[in-house]
Amino acid sequence: MNQNEQKKLVAERAIDTLIERKLIFSGMKIGLGTGSTAIPAVKRLAEKIRSGIIKDIKAVATSFQTSILCEELGIPVYSMNGNKIQGELDLAIDGADEIDPAGNLIKGGGAALLLEKIVAYNARKYIIVADETKVVPHLGTKFPLPVEIIPEARISIIREIEKLGGKAVLREGVKKCGPVITDNGNQILDCLWEPEKDGTSPVNPPEIEDRINSITGVVETGFFTKNKPSIFIARSDGTVEER
Ligand code: 5RP
């Protein structure tokens, strides 16, 4: 199975399994992630709504990509602050860029990390769907850690991240001149650490999440370490593993 087939398989399997286990249920409040693995999960959920298996879902979308898809599919979308959601979700489902053995994540490859984290950290149950390429021994040396920043603080934040051992680069737009502008009007720094010679991790993700978040001008980091997810992983042999 190629990577795209694995993404579709794991997304659909997770939605079906969560419905069977009554973790996705009628009337619930659900956070919907962003990216090419989250999208088939949203589409599968829409199929279940259309067929009447699930009713009266209240969704929070983590990006323009997801809210536009929900509009197209007829899934009602609400604000986290609205009366129907009250800042709390029953469950959130999303993809990830990297997953370590402790269940720490890097997210934000699609620059949606801020809303993704607001949703993830306010969900009673957090589900990650991913293909096997996302599973790594440690975070931050291959896929760069995205950090959403206020543009005016770019240089000072780059300097502070260097003090933490990372090298930060401003993310450039594609089919757009200049930097990527996030859904919230901010910019993204992509940060990499050199691998340690002995193969150990150069970063402690929970600690670096807090330290980067304490730098003035940082809006949020793509380390997700505080609400440990249940993880569905698709393998190239067509199996799905749960962790
Ligand atoms: C977007 C994200 C995505 O969940 C992450 O980039 C994984 O994307 P994909 O499923 O397309 O590989 O964090 O900000």
From TrEMBL:
Spans traversing the lipid bilayer:
none
The EC number on file is 5.3.1.6
User: Binding positions for substrate?
Assistant: T34, G35, S36, T37, D94, G95, A96, D97, K107, G108, G109, G110, K134
Superkingdom per UniProt: Bacteria
Keyword field:
Isomerase
A GO biological process held by the record: D-ribose metabolic process
InterPro entries reported for this sequence: NagB/RpiA_transferase-like, Ribose5P_isomerase_typA_subgr, Ribose5P_isomerase_type_A
Give the pathway listed in the UniProt entry for this protein.
Answer: Carbohydrate degradation; pentose phosphate pathway; D-ribose 5-phosphate from D-ribulose 5-phosphate (non-oxidative stage): step 1/1
Stretches assigned to coiled coil? none
Reactions mediated catalytically: aldehydo-D-ribose 5-phosphate = D-ribulose 5-phosphate
Q: Does the keyword Ribonucleoprotein apply?
A: no
The enzyme's main class, written as a single word, is isomerase
Q: Give the active-site positions.
A: E116 (proton acceptor)
Any one Gene Ontology molecular-function term assigned to this protein's record: ribose-5-phosphate isomerase activity
Q: Which CDD domains match?
A: RPI_A
Cellular component annotations (GO), alphabetically ordered: cytosol
Q: What is the protein's quaternary organization?
A: Homodimer.
- The protein's role, per its UniProt record: Catalyzes the reversible conversion of ribose-5-phosphate to ribulose 5-phosphate.
Q: What does the sequence similarity comment in the record state about its family? A: Belongs to the ribose 5-phosphate isomerase family.
Q: What is this protein called?
A: Ribose-5-phosphate isomerase A
The protein's organism comes out as Candidatus Gallitreponema excrementavium
From the broadest rank down, the organism's phylogenetic lineage runs: Bacteria, Pseudomonadati, Spirochaetota, Spirochaetia, Spirochaetales
